[in-house]
Each structure stands twice: as C-alpha cells, then as structure tokens.
Amino acid sequence: MGVFEITVLGSSSATPAYNRNPSAQMINLNEHFYLVDCGEATQNQLNKFKIKSAKIDTIFISHLHGDHYLGLVGLLSTLHLNGRTKTMTIVGPPELKDIIDLQLKVSETQLRFPIDFRPTQVDYTEVIFQNNDVIVETIILNHRIPTTGFVFKEVARKRKINTEKLTEYDIPLEYIPLLKNGIDYCDKFGRTIANAELTFAPKAPRSYAYCSDTIYTEHFLDQIEGVDCLYHEATFLHELIDRAKETFHTTALQAGTIANKANVKQLMIGHFSARYKELDLLLAEAKTAFNNTVLAVEGERYTL
Amino acid sequence: MGVFEITVLGSSSATPAYNRNPSAQMINLNEHFYLVDCGEATQNQLNKFKIKSAKIDTIFISHLHGDHYLGLVGLLSTLHLNGRTKTMTIVGPPELKDIIDLQLKVSETQLRFPIDFRPTQVDYTEVIFQNNDVIVETIILNHRIPTTGFVFKEVARKRKINTEKLTEYDIPLEYIPLLKNGIDYCDKFGRTIANAELTFAPKAPRSYAYCSDTIYTEHFLDQIEGVDCLYHEATFLHELIDRAKETFHTTALQAGTIANKANVKQLMIGHFSARYKELDLLLAEAKTAFNNTVLAVEGERYTL
After folding, report:
1. Residue B30: other Cβ atoms inside 10 A
2. Which among A65, A74, A102 has CB closest to B107?
3. A202 Cβ partners below 8 Å, 6+ apart?
4. What is the per-residue pLDDT across B103-139, written as a single tens digit (0 to 9) for each?
5. Segment A221-275, tens digit of pLDDT
6. Are B103 and A99 in contact (CB < 8 Å)?
7. B201, exposed or middle or buried, with CB in 10 Å at 0-12, 13-18, 19+?
8. Chain B residues with CB inside 8 Å of A108's CB?
9. What mean pLDDT, rounded, does chain B reach?
C-alpha cells in the first residue's frame, strides 16, 4: 500500500497571520500530487517545505474567496517559466476559469502546458475527478459563496493471492487476474473453491475529506462517514458562535461534533482566525467533542 | 526636510527564488506611504518588515505581469477585513481595474473603502498623481506588454526666512508668506530689498525614479536626469544580453550605463533572475559603468 500523506501549506483564515499562510494543502497519494486550495504565497510555502511544484498534476479549489485561490495564477506562471508541458487539471468554480484567462490575457502569456478545467457546481455531489489511485467527490458546503469540499477516496485495491493455496489446488496462472477480482475458482472436476480461501482481503481503501469553508451543517455526514482523516475548518472558538454563524464559519467545538457524528478516525482542524496567536484553546475545545483531533500545522505531514 | 525613504519588499524577477520575493517597494515621503508594484506575498513582506499596510494610501502598478501585481487583491482584501474606510488610490494599466472588479465580484466582496483608480497609458508621459508632497510622472518603458515606470519628484519647498534680516529691515510679519514664495520686499521708502538677502534657499527637492521592466532604452534619459536615486531593473548579467533583448529586460551593465548617462546620484538595481543565487557579480558589473550602485535588498531602507 502506497503513501497517502497530507502536507499542510496554509492554516490561516482570510489573511496571513503569525506566520500562518492562507489555505493550501498538498496530498501525496502513491507519489501523485494533488494541491487542495492555493492561497496567496502557496508557491513560497512549497519552496519553504522543499516540495517540487512540478509534481502537481491536479489542483482543487474549494471556492473563490481570495485566501483559497490567490496563489494559483502565480503558481501556474512559475510552472510555465520552469518549462512545464504536461497538462494541469484544475477543479474549481466556473468563474475561476475566467479569472485565469483574464490574467493570462493581460500578461500576454500563452502557457506552455494545457489546462484541463473541470468546473464544480453546488446543486449536487458528483465525482469530479478519478484516476487509478483516487476517486474525488465534491462535498456541497454551506458558505457565503458557492463552495465545495472534496472527499479523496483511494481506489479499492484488488485481493491478494495466497500462493500456497494456488499450489495446493494447482490453479493455472491465467486465473490470477480473476481471483484478484474476487471470482471463485471452478476446477476441472466442477468443484468450486471459494475466492476467500484463495486470496487475502486487501487493506481497506483510505479516505480523506476536506471541508473548508462552511457554517455548521450535518447534511454531508453520510459522505464523510468513517473517513480516515477529516479536515474541517474551525475558524473560531465557540464563544464566538454568533460571529461564526454570521460569517458562515464553524467553531472548534462544532468541528469536533461533526467528526464525532461522522465517526471519522481523525480530525484535523484549520483555517484559524487571525485573532488567535496561540491555537491550544481551539485544539482543546475540539477535543471535548472528538478526542483524536490535531491542529493543521504548516509543514507537518499527516499520514493516513 | 522630512523623510524620503525606499524600503525594498521584493527584488526577484518572475518567481520567488532564494527567499527573494517578486517586485514591490514602499516609499515613505514625509510619512505618507506609496507602494510601488505589489508582487505575490507583498503583504507577507510588509508583515515581516513590520510595515503597517494601513498606512498605504496610493499604489502604483507598473504593468500586468504577475510578478508585479498578483499580491494586490490579497492586500486590498486584508485592508478591507481590517476595517479600512479611507480611499485607496490605485495607479496602473486599465485592465487592472477589470481584474480587481472580477475578483471582488466572484468573492461577493463589497470593499468598505472606495478605490480611486487612475489608468496609465503608454502613448506619452503624464503627471499621474500629485499632492502637497510629491508629483509622480509616468515613464514610458519598453517591455513585452504596456509598462510604465514612475518618477517621484518631491514638491519644491518654500524659501526659509532669515529672521535676523527681518528684524534688521523691520519687515512686518504679514510679508512672510510672500518672502517664502521668493517675492522681493519693497519698504515704505520705495527701497527694494532682494528676496535672496531676506531668505535662504530651501534644500533641493529630492527625486526617485522607478524603472521596471524594460529593455535597454535611452529615450527616457531626460526624464530621470540627475535623480537622487534611480531604481533600474538588472535582470541578467551582460553575458546574457541576447536573452535580455529577447525578453525585453536589461543587463546590469546596461543599468549602470543608463545611470551614468542620466547623471543620477545613486543607482539601485533589482529584479534579479532566479538563475542568480549570489548577486555580487551583478553589482560588480553595474559598478563598472556607474560606481555608486547598490543592490535592492529586501527589508533594507534606502534614504534619499
């Protein structure tokens, strides 16, 4: 089973504060790299943490508040200047394409690489991206402007062959692909040997849900049920619940509550308001509702 | 005579490199603050160097390559969130307004402060901004897309009264404003006392010219003749003169040549290519043509 790792590049809401940068995360799944949100100076964060931006093949933008995407055109421009030619897939609200197009037009830049733009919408959940490693579904969040989260679900691995049993039952090698797909074996005497006897179950596919920004809502609980790690914004302490509601954000206590109700394995909280220099109270508050909570810390890697 | 000081916030061309940020400079003239260019992460640089962004009242953008303006909307957004209400004057190419408007529209942001947008053009030099302290003229540069530099000319101070002479000639106080404006004094006997005898000349007004980005051109020499400090881009060493021509940039040697021909007092070079980790060769090369050259170093203050 390959690596499934999140590196936090930005954990601040709205503006940079206390050396915290606006939202961005890098997901490494089997050495394929997915950038989720791209606040201003994300390329500086990539440099700082020695992550090669050239490795990124897909970028997911949750919504068009500046703290979630203002670093995108700078990053694309740097990739262009560095000679990238392979396609970049960009997932985000439709107007993001207009912004990219306008900024490239005024700078008279013709990117050396194609962009495969995939517009999100907020009417219903959909599979917005998939490849051999991952299926990505949008999560409809409830924020001031159209916003989606994303669930990254590792593609289920095939069953593993029990080679001893293969020898014991004298099963020809050409049956291996079928066995890996869970098919029972029927021998030349018409006898059926159950697949479960011939193979081992693969490890359960891992999953990561990214929920930022949103007011407290339980409507996507089903979608994030049992994920290995849930990133959920926790902009405020619960004493500022009125401010959270007014700005369509979530408190640390509410993020913990969501994690608890969705039976996730781990909760990562982030998108911290600039009013908090220290984050320990936010962490402690989330933990009162869900103990296995960690802070999104820039430069830290979280392994699923 | 008040302060006239430049703080370099970014000295890198195209992309951030070796902890150098893209172009931005802060000019403090008599405690009024003017931002010149605003590359990505300029607001982080302001934080780093403990310069209050709230003090900025005017922003000048030379052109619409991303490394000169991608930090602007993030900065405006932060000022908005911090409660700014006073007008921000923004000087730049007309399409900059379209970009700002589009980005505010998609984020459904209504700024709390008005923007006084003043479009630049590249057909002829013009006074694009003035107040009691400064007159700012555009410089028509020659780059791949429409680009202007800016000359900041301190408004000439009035003459200073020689109080001893006022007593000696028994000159009434109400004449002082006239004397400060250089008018001669005519006493009750019809005798004229030359202004030069009654007043001291003020210090010469200071001037700063900002020239980025441009291919080598002498057509604006008259405009920058004798400035106290000339900032001129010096993207490459002269061994890459072909690359400089191709990309409409200048070499360090050429920047020194311009400074020499324009008889400026000091040359500051910047906009260094990401290929140069160390900058000493660029400095040495510029100095061969103009000895009083300094490097644009981020966080450094240059006093005129």
Report:
1. 15
2. A65
3. A156, A157, A158, A159, A160
4. 999 999 999 999 999 999 999 999 999 999 999 999 9
5. 999 999 999 999 999 999 999 999 999 999 999 999 999 999 999 999 999 999 9
6. yes
7. exposed
8. 144-145
9. 96
User: Hey, which residues of B are catalytic here?
Assistant: 67
Contacts of A23 in chain B (CB under 8 A): none
Q: What is the CATH number of domain A4-156+204-303?
A: 3.60.15.10
Report the C-alpha gap between B82 and B77 in whole angstroms: 9
Q: How far apart are CA A221 and CA A223, in angstroms?
A: 5
pLDDT exceeds 80 at position B1:
no
Q: What share of chain A is helix, strand, coil (3-state, %, to 5)?
A: 30, 30, 40
The radius of gyration of chain B from alpha carbons, rounded to an integer in Å, stands at 22
| A67 alpha-carbon distance from chain centroid | 17
Whether A37 contacts chain B with CB within 8 A: no
Q: Work out the minimum CA distance from B44 to partner chain A, whole angstroms.
A: 7
Give the chain A residue nearest B81 (alpha carbons): A14
Which has the closest alpha carbon to B155: B138, B134, B137, B136? B134
Q: pLDDT above 70 covers what percent of chain B?
A: 100
CA A246 to chain centre: 27
Whole-model pTM: value is 0.92
**Tens digits of residue pLDDT in B175-231:** 899 999 889 998 888 889 999 999 999 888 999 999 989 999 999 999 999 999 999
> What backbone torsions phi and psi does residue A14 show, to the nearest 5 degrees?
65, -60
Q: Are A208 and A152 in contact (CB under 8 A)?
A: yes
Locate the domains of chain A by residue range: 4-156+204-303, 160-200
Question: Could you tell me if B271 and B13 are in contact, meaning their C-beta atoms sit under 8 angstroms apart?
Answer: yes
| Strand-pair category, B267-270 with B293-295 | parallel
User: What is the CATH number that goes with domain B4-157+203-303?
Assistant: 3.60.15.10
CB contacts, 8 Å: B67 with chain A: 74, 77
* Candidate from A14, A70, A102 with C-beta closest to B102: A102
Cβ-contact B25, B210 below 8 angstroms: yes
Residue A190's pLDDT is 85
Residues 3-22 of A with CB under 8 A from B: 14-16, 21
Q: Which of B77, B103, B144 sits opposite A108 (nearest CB)?
A: B144
pLDDT per residue over B69-99, tens digit each?
Answer: 999 999 999 999 999 999 999 999 999 999 9
**DSSP 8-state assignment for residue A31:** T
CA distance A12 to chain B (A): 12
**What is the Cα–Cα distance from A20 to A271, expressed in whole angstroms?**
9
Which residue bears the tokens 């950038």?
A35
The residues that bridge with A93 in the sheet, in sequence order, are none
Residue A120: exposure state from Cβ atoms within 10 A (0-12, 13-18, ≥19) = buried
Could you tell me the pLDDT band of residue A1, with boundaries at 50, 70 and 90?
Answer: low
- In chain B, residues 127-146 whose CB comes closer than 8 Å to chain A: 144-145
Between positions 70 and 99 of B, the ones with CB within 8 A of A are 70-71, 73-74, 77-78, 81-82, 93, 95-96, 98-99
Per-residue pLDDT tens over the stretch A111-167: 999 999 999 999 999 999 999 999 999 999 999 999 999 999 999 888 999 999 888
